[in-house]
Amino acid sequence: MALVVHKYGGTSMGSIDRIKNVARRVAKWHDAGYQVVVVPSAMAGETNRLIGLAREIMPEPDQRELDMVTSTGEQVSIGLLSMALLQLGKEAVSFTGWQVPVKTDTSHTKARIQSIDEARIRENLDKGKIVIIAGFQGISDAGNITTLGRGGSDTSAVAMAAALKAAECLIYTDVDGVYTTDPRVVTDAKRLKKITFEEMLEMASLGSKVLQTRSVELAGNYHVPTRVLSSLTDPDIPLEEESRSGTLITFEEENTDMEQTVISGIAFSRDEAKITVLGVPDRPGVAFQILGAIADANIEVDMIIQNQSVGGKTDFTFTVPRPDYNRAMDLLNNQVKAEVGATDIIGDAKVSKVSAIGIGMRSHVGVASRMFGTLFEEGINILMISTSEIKISVIIDEKYMELAVRALHKAFELEKM
Amino acid sequence: MALVVHKYGGTSMGSIDRIKNVARRVAKWHDAGYQVVVVPSAMAGETNRLIGLAREIMPEPDQRELDMVTSTGEQVSIGLLSMALLQLGKEAVSFTGWQVPVKTDTSHTKARIQSIDEARIRENLDKGKIVIIAGFQGISDAGNITTLGRGGSDTSAVAMAAALKAAECLIYTDVDGVYTTDPRVVTDAKRLKKITFEEMLEMASLGSKVLQTRSVELAGNYHVPTRVLSSLTDPDIPLEEESRSGTLITFEEENTDMEQTVISGIAFSRDEAKITVLGVPDRPGVAFQILGAIADANIEVDMIIQNQSVGGKTDFTFTVPRPDYNRAMDLLNNQVKAEVGATDIIGDAKVSKVSAIGIGMRSHVGVASRMFGTLFEEGINILMISTSEIKISVIIDEKYMELAVRALHKAFELEKM
């Protein structure tokens, strides 16, 4: 009997009626003969409410005690969902993270899963029960409750699917899959039926909010077939139809398409800022001096470019999230500039990043030239370029972002997907 | 170093500001050199909110899953209170019931505590930490979360104090102690500085809402000195003053007063109803036939009186809570009357119970006659009488209830306490 793991996000669990819909959907899979493990998130807004209470008491909440408080959101969800299934006449039982147990390290509020004991889950599945597991949480060796951080329920679900060697991990969410780009920008964006995990990883880290990056990594490491699909459809649609909907994350070696798609999607991130440190002496340790100071201030750095030096001096350019731009500039001007002996610091807080992603790019020359040519034809100046094996990202003026996304979507014929 | 257990009710934990006040009060005790274990309830209204969610999904919620849901209320409280103490610069740590562990039987929603492992608590107290324990909850042998039922946090606190052999268990609540009677009925009602546990037990079971009956029994069985006092005073009042406030529950053998008070208080319960089954054949099993049917319908029976039979027939009278009166009458008329061969069923849903309670009554004759005489002087007819070693209860017409309470309070000179 095939085993599947279902994960439902906070919106899907957001009201009593929605919880009842989740139960109907789960029951449908169980009726069809599947063993089903369900990982629900806290009801929408609940985690924020609990964090709000904590911050009113302790502006920088103690991390262990914060986990004690926030882990209750998922605990309420599993009990309610279990009741909704029992009310439908199904046998169901819920377990918290510590009851499984889901063992994690001791990093409160951002713990990593170390192991999942499947015995108690298997025992109940074998009795014909639907098993509901609290996502987002675990227990440390010292017996403290830990949480996995924001979006951790995705990670819990994929880890659960890996531990149980599930046939598929279905991530039910408020979108119906992964698109070639944001449909709000390109109206004829298409839903991808499949995406490789490497592409999904780039999509996730480039700002697509569909899946948490860590859960995609985990799916890749353990080869968990993971499907992103909508929880907002009628829960009673035929299972045949539902099980083919959404977007399935696959693994390259399984992909036997003769005609490998070159580009799978155009991702973008509007709120970027770029900073250039000019006239830096080209000696060892300079990059560390500049970026170390930025990292110490908890500012994330994304693209980094250093040009060939001329006359022993070079320019060093990188991007930061726009909200951190002013803080980064102050830090560089007041501290780093003198330390590294730079001639000037210049920046631009109105830039955006546009990326073309595709596993097929590995074996196809000409993707970069088609991308740059398209932008040239539209009169868009490229300010920075960064490439990986399956991705090309450019930084451009913010005002051209939508234009660039639409032009690239068309140039790579993504509307025909 | 003396160890004390503090218990705070839902009202005391009802808002962020109140939680901060609780923390200041606890910190004051810790500053004075006490080891402090704190058992807070869920924030006021939270348990009802959670039960409401459950009932929307499952009108008669599965008991195991309901415990999963409702136990989160106290878990949030302990985390927040721990943070409030940490914010004050105190070392504090919180534990759920299963983390202690507090072992219970498997009766979900009304579990009984079987044992408390004190090791983890002691270890943290010995490190100088304030230890916060979730009340109302425990864990069964099978590893399921259980709850102790309404008011269970009182029971948790007293059990904790017993296990840790605490010097005192302080129950902080929204009243400032136990009174000779309800001050809303008798304006010169006096707060009792002490009350024996037997008297407190009668008070609790007679409707005084100050302490849950089970927690009083537990205090009695384990001789836990338990004090009921107000959480609404300024948290910074001198500890000397606070530690003498409220009402201390004592044990008879410790009571060395030469002049034992005869009566400690007048308790009352307005919403009673009495039912008489007339002309019942006086044969074995009849009482069981009548009361068994009532008990099967989950109706609680309080006072029971059966008169001497005359001519092989007797009358059987008992009281039930007024909200159950109609249901009980229907049951008796439609089912029991024919079964037992009674001639008629009569009832009165407008009666109240008034009780005089006092451990001193054991050694003083004349308490009953003074009570009945006082009621006679006021022209109040006594409908039923029931006595125990330390209590005399009468059922009277509801409209005389306040008059009876005031007259008895004065007759036993309770205003001079």
UniProtKB/TrEMBL annotation, chains A, B:
<dbReference type="GO" id="GO:0009089">
    <property type="term" value="P:lysine biosynthetic process via diaminopimelate"/>
</dbReference>
<keyword id="KW-0067">ATP-binding</keyword>
<comment type="pathway">
    <text>Amino-acid biosynthesis; L-methionine biosynthesis via de novo pathway; L-homoserine from L-aspartate: step 1/3.</text>
</comment>
<dbReference type="InterPro" id="IPR036393">
    <property type="entry name" value="AceGlu_kinase-like_sf"/>
</dbReference>
<dbReference type="GO" id="GO:0009090">
    <property type="term" value="P:homoserine biosynthetic process"/>
</dbReference>
<keyword id="KW-0457">Lysine biosynthesis</keyword>
<feature type="domain" description="ACT">
    <location>
        <begin position="275"/>
        <end position="356"/>
    </location>
</feature>
<feature type="binding site">
    <location>
        <position position="179"/>
    </location>
    <ligand>
        <name>ATP</name>
    </ligand>
</feature>
<dbReference type="GO" id="GO:0005829">
    <property type="term" value="C:cytosol"/>
</dbReference>
<dbReference type="Pfam" id="PF01842">
    <property type="entry name" value="ACT"/>
</dbReference>
<dbReference type="GO" id="GO:0004072">
    <property type="term" value="F:aspartate kinase activity"/>
</dbReference>
<comment type="pathway">
    <text>Amino-acid biosynthesis; L-threonine biosynthesis; L-threonine from L-aspartate: step 1/5.</text>
</comment>
<keyword id="KW-0808">Transferase</keyword>
<protein>
    <recommendedName>
        <fullName>Aspartokinase</fullName>
        <ecNumber>2.7.2.4</ecNumber>
    </recommendedName>
</protein>
<feature type="binding site">
    <location>
        <position position="74"/>
    </location>
    <ligand>
        <name>substrate</name>
    </ligand>
</feature>
<dbReference type="InterPro" id="IPR018042">
    <property type="entry name" value="Aspartate_kinase_CS"/>
</dbReference>
<dbReference type="InterPro" id="IPR002912">
    <property type="entry name" value="ACT_dom"/>
</dbReference>
<feature type="binding site">
    <location>
        <position position="47"/>
    </location>
    <ligand>
        <name>substrate</name>
    </ligand>
</feature>
<dbReference type="Pfam" id="PF22468">
    <property type="entry name" value="ACT_9"/>
</dbReference>
<comment type="similarity">
    <text>Belongs to the aspartokinase family.</text>
</comment>
<feature type="binding site">
    <location>
        <begin position="209"/>
        <end position="210"/>
    </location>
    <ligand>
        <name>ATP</name>
    </ligand>
</feature>
<dbReference type="InterPro" id="IPR041740">
    <property type="entry name" value="AKii-LysC-BS"/>
</dbReference>
<keyword id="KW-0547">Nucleotide-binding</keyword>
<dbReference type="Pfam" id="PF00696">
    <property type="entry name" value="AA_kinase"/>
</dbReference>
<feature type="binding site">
    <location>
        <position position="184"/>
    </location>
    <ligand>
        <name>ATP</name>
    </ligand>
</feature>
<feature type="binding site">
    <location>
        <begin position="173"/>
        <end position="174"/>
    </location>
    <ligand>
        <name>ATP</name>
    </ligand>
</feature>
<dbReference type="InterPro" id="IPR005260">
    <property type="entry name" value="Asp_kin_monofn"/>
</dbReference>
<dbReference type="GO" id="GO:0009088">
    <property type="term" value="P:threonine biosynthetic process"/>
</dbReference>
<feature type="binding site">
    <location>
        <begin position="7"/>
        <end position="10"/>
    </location>
    <ligand>
        <name>ATP</name>
    </ligand>
</feature>
<dbReference type="InterPro" id="IPR001341">
    <property type="entry name" value="Asp_kinase"/>
</dbReference>
<dbReference type="InterPro" id="IPR045865">
    <property type="entry name" value="ACT-like_dom_sf"/>
</dbReference>
<dbReference type="InterPro" id="IPR001048">
    <property type="entry name" value="Asp/Glu/Uridylate_kinase"/>
</dbReference>
<keyword id="KW-0418">Kinase</keyword>
<dbReference type="GO" id="GO:0005524">
    <property type="term" value="F:ATP binding"/>
</dbReference>
<keyword id="KW-0028">Amino-acid biosynthesis</keyword>
<dbReference type="InterPro" id="IPR054352">
    <property type="entry name" value="ACT_Aspartokinase"/>
</dbReference>
